[in-house]
Write a structure and sequence with these properties.
4-stranded antiparallel β-sheet, single chain, 2 helices, globular, alpha+beta
Length: 100
């Protein structure tokens, strides 16, 4: 499992996050998603730590904390839902049925 960090300043780097989270335990991985078109950070990240206890400690201490001018949102990351091949529902396109 990993930790979700939201409301990040756009200039935050993986090294910045690693230095903050190592205060609570061993950091295995840091991932900052970026926008495909601009390459800019999307304002959130994921940090994976060695143990659930380390993650819980980091969440308890950092959720709501002010860092780099922003109030952090820190919680357990939710598993990624498989949205399927049609982007998460809705109409699949084309005309089905006769009432158009």
């Amino acid at each position: 499992m990993s930790v979700y960090i939201g409301n990040l300043a756009y200039e935050v780097t993986e090294d910045d996050l690693k230095s903050v989270f190592t205060d609570y335990g061993s950091v295995k991985r840091v991932h900052i998603p970026t926008d495909r078109e601009t390459g800019r950070s999307r304002g959130f990240a994921f940090v994976e730590m060695d143990t659930d206890a380390e993650e819980t400690s980091a969440i308890e201490e950092l959720d709501g904390a002010e860092w780099m001018g922003r109030d952090l949102k820190v919680n357990k990351a939710k598993p990624r839902e498989n949205s399927g091949s049609f982007g998460g529902g809705g109409r699949r396109g084309g005309r089905s049925g006769g009432g158009y």
